[in-house]
TrEMBL record:
GO terms for MF: glycosyltransferase activity
UniProt entry tagged with the keyword Zinc: no
Keywords for this protein: Glycosyltransferase, Membrane, Transferase, Transmembrane, Transmembrane helix
Residue stretches spanning the membrane: 276-301, 307-330, 342-360
Protein name, as recorded: Cellulose synthase/poly-beta-1,6-N-acetylglucosamine synthase-like glycosyltransferase
Family to which the UniProt record says this protein belongs: Belongs to the glycosyltransferase 2 family.
Entry keyword annotation includes Glycosyltransferase: yes
Amino acid sequence: MIRKLKSNNVNLKWITDSPGAGKKAALLIPQYNEASQNNIYARLEYFKQLSTQIKADIDLIIIDDGSTDNSLDEIRSFLNSTPCDFTVASVYPNANKVGALYMTVLEIEHEFIILSDFDTDLDGFEFLSKELSRLGARADFMGGYFRMLPLADGGGVTLFQQVEYAMARSLYRFHRNEDSVPVMPGAGSCYKRNVLVRIFEDHSGLRSGEDRESTLIGLKNGFKTAYIKDVIALTRPPRTIRTLIKQRVRWNLGYLETIDKEKQFYKKQVAESTRIGLRFFIDMLTVILLILLPFALLTLISIAPNYFWISILAIYGTGLLWCLAVVVLVPEETMEFQRKRHLSVLIFPFYKILVEYMSWNLALSQFFSNKKNNHAG
């Protein structure tokens, strides 16, 4: 990736003094055009308070990734109006997040790098020191991922995402024997710096699935992952079906781009029946069945209406049983929606099929369009 950054003349400049040596970890918060999207002052005030809480052990660094609005001016104005314990770096031009993180990591010397997003709240740092010691004691660990929770606003789309995130967290048990979770979320994870530098050197720099690709490169190099469940990343989820599908199109496109880049690694994992290989096989089988579902149902309703309704009930029942199994078997991962989880579980299969069908179709269309344009270029 360094060649791509050099060819684009990407540079880094410290707006404040760069963080000095001595602290074990650095928390990196990239931002791009946040002044035109959110209340940037409210978020800067949050990071001011957070940096004060963690300053004994962790440097908090906000990275402006070549914003084209007045975000950097707003950050400067905030710094001029109030003393802050966080530092600020400016990467320019825009480096698609991964490049901005890479440039910053090269400029600092902390043993651990914590990654999060500008719109994510973090809690539980008092437990992190012990976890970092655990990671540091094992040469084969690249880092760990935090407990991801969507902030609730009471809406139906948020309830769906609470169930969905709980489903995803429940699958951590599937990967526990190999310590091989396929995605360490960019909104809440921690890497050993020396491993992250190696990962970024091999990274494509593509934005859609940067966290999935980063994790996979680490796994490909023989490193393992750990679940840091006591550190919580509270992310702000989409509030409408439209914005949710848009988000999932980006995630699924990132998955496809990672598969395309690392196809040989995936083939090897499937052949060896590793947890990553089995998870990949199940994911792809699910996508194929999902894409074919409307055609199969249309065929059934035309030739065997009774089987059509049986199939609908079977699909819904399978989704419902999956939800109920998670609630019963992994109750610690469903606590955030206890009061409304009965309604959430009942509506989850409908939401899941709708969102996944739309987002995977759109992602596949965009992926093949990008491939065609790249070949044409």
